[in-house]
Write a sequence for this structure.
């Protein structure tokens, strides 16, 4: 995942200072998607209405999706209202798909368990996986790693971790991240 970390760092380094100055927290992920990549972020009540949306089983829901041809990221509006840090992570996750996986894709759909920072599943839920196309790497895990690196850049995370003596609640507040995502970032960096 080192290459994923480097991709996120390159995105952050390439942003104009009016989008992000390299220091301000939390990292403005929606501004990055919009001003940095020209992607419209929409909070949508029913992601199943998206063109080509997969049929979901009872209890399944979509957390977010990327529609590359339309230049849009759709976020589950109910989840966004209930868990604002999850909304940020979902946008970062879909932006990861844009940066690393959009070539040849009509759409990428991420079920809730795929962007839930507490769940690790081997299966991939993407347009490629549902169409039967072989996928050599776990693009969902890559997109989640990208989101973590984008929202909690290593150099800032290490600095803030030292500043607050590793207090998870303080780190969550600074980075606008969930407890689970913050704890995973700590585990990956320390």
């Amino acid at each position: 995942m080192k290459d994923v970390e480097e991709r996120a760092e390159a995105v952050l380094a390439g942003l104009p200072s009016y989008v992000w100055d390299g220091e301000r927290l939390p990292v403005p992920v929606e501004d990055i998607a919009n001003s940095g990549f020209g992607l419209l972020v929409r909070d949508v009540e029913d992601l199943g209405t998206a063109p080509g949306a997969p049929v979901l089983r009872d209890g399944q829901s979509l957390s977010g999706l990327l529609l590359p041809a339309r230049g849009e990221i759709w976020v589950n509006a109910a989840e966004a209202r209930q868990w604002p840090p999850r909304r940020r992570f979902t946008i970062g996750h879909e932006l990861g798909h844009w940066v690393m996986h959009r070539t040849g894709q009509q759409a990428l759909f991420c079920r809730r368990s795929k962007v839930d920072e507490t769940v690790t599943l081997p299966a991939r839920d993407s347009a490629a996986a549902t169409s039967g196309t072989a996928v050599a790497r776990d693009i969902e895990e890559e997109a989640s790693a990208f989101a973590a690196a984008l929202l909690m850049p290593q150099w800032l995370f290490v600095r803030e971790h030292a500043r607050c003596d590793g207090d998870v609640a303080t780190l969550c507040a600074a980075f606008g991240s969930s407890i689970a995502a913050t704890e995973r970032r700590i585990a990956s960096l320390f």
Summary: The chain has one domain: 2-152.
